Amino acid sequence: MLPKVLKVLFVLLIVKPLVFIALGLNVINRDKLPVSGPAVLAANHNSHLDTLVLLALFPISQVHKVRPVAAADYFLSNRFVSWLSLNVIGIIPIKRMHSGADKDKLFDECHRALRDNDILLVFPEGSRGEPEVMSGLKKGIYHLVSEYDKCPVLPVVMRGLGLSLPKGTAMFVPFNCDVVVGEPLDAFENSDAFLTDMQAAYESLTKHCVTQVL
């Protein structure tokens, strides 16, 4: 119960003011966000602000059911960051996938969250890339949702956040940013089809961005 209260207060008092006041945020197709799980939001990843922006888009009554999936080696790196990540932000820590990894065990906690009708925030690039440059997609989401009959994956494109708080810096710079939510996809024949469909969706959503990044 306490983590739920802490998360709601954190999003209400810190995240939403930061996102909607400090950033010039332009949200397109916000109405397409899921109102319940199981569901997965799959967004591009350029900044630590990405997770906060996605959390801020959900109503306060729903935010405790939104679970960011994050790299264990980074967010559990020290006692304070670990406590904040687990008890306030409510992340699902996951070890980075490597050759020979047991995919079933890798996603155990993600599966529990989906069975509890949570909404997962996932970054299919695997880690933060160069600002405003999308790198190759990983197949992890496909392996996560392939055993469910209906678990929609919603592609999300964010632009500008990589310049507001780029990788490798702690300096926040207000910048106009876009968030474009795509149509849910829930039928991938195989992992290759997943990559093809998701890449096409990202390219289409990028055309709706209005922020000009030089």
From TrEMBL:
GO terms for biological process: phosphatidic acid biosynthetic process. Pfam families: Acyltransferase. The keyword Transcription does not apply. CDD domains: LPLAT_AGPAT-like. Residues 39-161 form the Phospholipid/glycerol acyltransferase domain. The chain crosses the membrane at residues 6-28. This is 1-acyl-sn-glycerol-3-phosphate acyltransferases. Keywords: Acyltransferase, Membrane, Transferase, Transmembrane, Transmembrane helix. One of its GO terms (molecular function) is 1-acylglycerol-3-phosphate O-acyltransferase activity. InterPro entries: Plipid/glycerol_acylTrfase. Pathway: Lipid metabolism.
